[in-house]
Write a structure and sequence with these properties.
By secondary structure, this protein is mostly beta strands. Helix content is 10%, strand content 37%. The strands form two sheets. Strands 1, 3, 4, 6, 11, 12, 13 and 15 form an eight-stranded antiparallel beta sheet that branches. Strands 2-5-14-7-8-9-10 form a seven-stranded antiparallel beta sheet, with helices on one face. Strand 11 (169-176) and strand 12 form a beta hairpin.
């Protein structure tokens, strides 16, 4: 997928807007009052990109057949231009192939500036056979885990519940004030309270895994 000049301007403008709004993140954050589709099934409108070595996003991200395709290389992420808080997020995604290996990905919430590989946020782990773990990135803290200087992995206490490679997994993430809950294919896998960040853009990680995303939407809490 090639990015037009208009799309490039939108990406740059979105990044500038991100920096402008972050000092007022709680005031600027959108609280869903109805379902909000983050992916329209056609293109990546409403998304911005941060890729290692400023790589061209179209090398990594494309839309075909109604799904987002991420090659996993180079490392980086796509994130929403909009800032959100207090929501239920549903993501349906899968590893595309087994060979050479399923490898890694993840979903970011509460992304904070500056855009960098990788940003301050909470990652819901997408690594093969480790889905259910939380990763506290770049200084995020939760109850029981003081803010680290780099990152900290909060391993899931539950048994693995991910689908075989090639089948679709469903993530459901509840972000309510400073609390997070992570469901994988219907099972509660992990949760956190007293999170030091509670709003921000939502992201998809590029970290080695060749993945597809077919649905990604927000709903009000309680849905």
């Amino acid at each position: 997928m090639k990015f037009s000049n208009a799309a490039r301007i939108a990406i740059i403008s979105g990044g500038l807007l991100f920096y402008t709004l972050v000092s007022r993140a709680e005031d600027s954050a959108l609280v869903p009052g109805h379902r909000i589709d983050l992916f329209n099934g056609k293109d990546l409108s409403g998304w911005s990109f941060c890729m290692k070595s400023n790589s061209e996003p179209s090398r990594t991200w494309s839309v075909e057949g109604g799904v987002i395709h991420c090659t996993g290389q180079p490392y980086g992420y796509a994130r929403t231009l909009a800032i959100y808080r207090d929501y239920k997020l549903t993501v349906e995604w899968r590893f595309v192939k087994v060979a050479p290996k399923a490898d890694n990905s993840g979903i970011f919430v509460h992304v904070q500036p500056p855009d960098k590989v990788f940003p301050k946020c909470v990652e819901f782990q997408g690594q093969n056979q480790h889905q259910g773990d939380l990763i506290l990135m770049a200084g995020v803290g939760i109850k029981g885990y003081a803010p680290p200087t780099t990152y900290h992995i909060v391993a899931t206490p539950e048994k693995p519940n991910e689908k075989p490679v090639g089948e679709w997994n469903t993530y459901e993430i509840i972000a309510a004030a400073d609390t997070l809950k992570f469901y994988l294919n219907g099972n509660l896998m992990n949760q956190a309270t007293e999170c030091t960040i509670s709003s921000g853009p939502i992201g998809i990680q590029s970290e080695g895994g060749d993945i597809e995303v077919r649905k990604m939407f927000l709903e009000p809490l309680g849905k």
